[in-house]
Every structure is written in structure tokens, then in C-alpha cells.
Specification:
Blueprint (H helix, E strand, L loop, with lengths): L4 E8 L10 H16 L2 E9 L8 H12 L3 E5 L2 H4 L3 H12 L3 E5 L9 H35 L10 E4 L4 E4 L3 H13 L5 H10 L12 H8 L7 E4 L2 E4 L8 H13 L19 E2 L6 E7 L5 E7 L11 E2 H14 L4 H17 L5 H26 L5 H25 L4 H20 L5 H11 E7 L2 E6 L1 H12 L15 H7 L7 H8 L4
Parallel strand pairs: 1-2, 1-3, 3-4, 9-13
Antiparallel strand pairs: 5-6, 7-8, 10-11, 11-12, 13-14
Length: 525
Amino acid sequence: MNKPKYFLYARKSTEDDDKQVMSIESQLFEMREFARKENLEILTEFQESKSAKTPGRPVFNKMMEQINSLEGFGVLAWHPDRLARNSIDGGQVIYAVDQKKIVSLRFPTFWFEPTPQGLFMLQVAFGQSKYYSDNLTQNVKRGMRAKLRRGEWLTRAPFGYVNNKAKKVIEPHPVHSQIIVRAYEEYAKGTHGLVSLSHFLFDLGLTTKAGTPLGKASVKRILTNRAYLGFTKHKDEWFDGSFAPILSPKLFEAVQVVLSANARPRKTRLGHNFPFTNLFRCGECDSMITAQWATGRHGGRYRYYRCTKKKGSCSQGYVREDVLADQLKTQLQTISLCDAYTAYMLGKVEEWEKAENTASQSGVQNLSDSIKASEARMDKLVESYLDGDIPKDLYLKKKDEIMRATLTLKEKKKDFAHQGNNWVEPLREWILDTKQATFLSSSDDFSEIAAFVKKVGTNPSVRDKTARFSVSSPFGFVLQGKARFPLASSRASSTRSLSRDEVSFCDPTGNRTPVSWMRTMCPSR
């Protein structure tokens, strides 16, 4: 009887190139050495990176098709579990042996003869392989559930975090986490699309493996990744995590609003860099002010601003960009304060904040009750889902809403411990604005000037080649004080001593509390 020729089959369980990289190579080496010692002739080698837990392996099926179309061939594999870990594929192999399609099965680690006893042992080996696979699945799922209960991240840390192998947790990366925060802050401003944000991240070092800017889908995944809120994910479901968040719920939700608004953006042409466009209206006809390049008398190229005249006839002419900028800087000087004043006022804000930085017990209790109510809704939602009362897609949607709402309530409760923040931050921001006005009044960064005017000014307009804008009441307080203390607009050192009158100017609360004074000065804040 002629010795059969063999099909050699080697398999590893994962398609990931980074895992089990030596598995197939070591199998091939051992089986070729085994074939040499046993004088077995290898006809064809089949290699596959696919789990055998379920049917449908393309390379295995191709090998079985060739076996079923021929007769008298053998199969060489490292172990029966390389051939099958499910009953269908195992049945195919046993049936092929019964039909004499496979006349020999050889394994370096397992004995087999095509006899009733050998087939029985082969069935036992396939059954053990299936049992091991099924049991492994249950153990993995049990481990996953335990990790989710502990709030652990289950896979490789997302960008912005780093795996702490010693503690088996993920932690914010000292640099990458700040890149994520910057990305969210930039996108929340509404000045970036997904493509421009991709280039922004590219400049910060976040690229693809090929060193190119991220695609739009990758950027959007970053902007919607709830892991940055401290949530952990399993399949399509999010759970409370035990690791530190990178983002605040407020910033995350602000980005979601911008993403939603930009879901179907209008097509606009790319324009030139005109920093004062979309800022001014015409003081005569109320049309928007636009910009264009023009050539001056001596051949120089200048940027000019003019009325679009879209609301009818208008007599307003052109005004050069540098002239507009000088006019704005002159107005910024009127609402600026020197370093000595701002340093003193910021010091007073710190004193007020410390004096009133006690939590309101009733407010904290209300937030605690709201958190408990939200958690109760979550429990009721889970019970309804487990009882089959609601479909999975609705369950996941409602669960996500409740988790985000609960996180927001917890963040409010945390911030409520600093009761003064409701008025301190606007006050501190206003003082810093007066300091920023001082800096911008001598700056040549027209984009920053335009952004600042948008922030603090109202009704900016251009009429008779003159730029104007109004400011809110706190800056009116600065205008009044500067009539008394001209030094307020200079770059005076923050270390100099202030006079009694100047101290009174910088601390205008009198007998009123800082809260009431702030509400009077900044009712819109």
C-alpha cells in the first residue's frame, strides 16, 4: 500500500499580528521536523489566523474541499484543537475519516489510528477542545464583568491615557491628556472643523502610524469618546469607571453641541485672512462690513474694509485695516487697567473667595437627592431591560443620557463646595479682561484684538471711517475711575503702593457684599 501524501495545517487563534506572532512559525518548524523523522511527504501547507470556536474558516474550508474531492490523503496538524474547536468542523473531519477521504491523521502531540477506538478518542479530543473554548469564554466574560464592577478599562488605553501595568489601571498621560483638553477647547470655540482640528492635532504630534494627519472619522471618535469623562466601555455600552477623567462634563457637552451643529455644515468658500470680518456692521445702513485687497498710491498692497451695501444705497467708503486696528487699540486703552490695580483687585478676589468658600448645606443636599434619584432611574431602567420591557437600542440610549446627567450633577455637587465661584469667576475674568485690554492696546495681533472686541464689546460698527463699539457696565466703572487716576492705563509695576483713593477705586464694594456688587456691575454675567 502506497504511503499517503499529507496536507499540513497550522493555525493561530487571532488575526492580530501583534499577538501569538510565533505560534504558526513554531508549529511549522515542529511539524516539518516531525514529517522528516516519520518520512511523511507534505503535499500542501495551509496556514490560517482565525479562531476555530465557530465554523467559517476560509482556509480550513478550502482544505476540506480539496480533501472531499480526492481520496487517500492525510492531514498533519500540531493537535486536534488546531483543526476544530466546534462540533461542525470536528464532525467534518470525523466524517471524512469515515468516508476514507482522510486515511491518516498525524499529530506530534496526539495519537490517532483510523479505528473505532481512534475515532472515539478523536471525538473526545474535539469535545475537550470545544469544552476548553466554551469554558474559556465563560471565564473571560466573568473576568470582564468583575473588571466592569471595579470600573476598570478593559483594553489598551485610549490616546490621552497610559496603561499602568503595575497597578493594572489607566492614568492620564502627562502630555497626551493635555493635547486632548486642547483639542476639546479649540473645537468648542466653533472655529474648527474636523479637518482643521486634525491639522491642529498634527502640529501637536498626534498623527496616524504613517505619520499623516488623522482622518475625520478618527477626530470625531476622539471628540465623542466618553472615556475622557471617566467612563469605561464594553462592546457598545458605557459604565462608570474608577480612573481619573481628563475632561469636565461641561467641556464635553459643549463639544457635543458644536458637533451636532456642524453635522451638516453649509458649504463656504475658503477666504483670505481678514481678521475684522464678521465683526462690524455699517453705522449707516446696518449691512455687514466686508474686506478685500487693494493697491495703494505707491503700489503697496493693503487690506481694506467696506460696507457690503446689501440693504440698499449707502454712502460709506473704504477704510484701511491698520487704521481700524489703531482705532480699536485706542478704545481698548480706555477700558484697560495697569498691573498695580489688577494685582490688588485679584488679591481682593482671593480674599473674598476664601471668606465665602463654604458649602451651602441645603444646596448640597438637593444635589445629593437629585443624584440618588438619577441613580434610582438607572436601576429601574436596568430592571426594565432585564425584564424585556424595553429594546436594547432604547436601553443604551437612555442609559447614556442618565449616566451623563448623573455625572453633571456630581460635578455640580463638587463645584458647590466652592460657593463663591458663581460670582468670583466672572469678577476675576473681568479683571483679567482689563489686564488683557492693556496688553492688546499695544499689540499687532489683529486676530486677538478682533476676538477680544467680540468678547467684551457690543454693537461694533464702522461709520465715517471710524470704528466704534460699546462695553458693558463694569468697563464703565473703569472709564469713571480713569478720569480720577490717569495712571490706571499705564503699565505701572504691580509692586508699587496704592494711595488711599486708589485703594477705594480698586475696592468699590463699600458696605455691600462682593456678590451684590458683582450683580450690580455685571447683571448679564
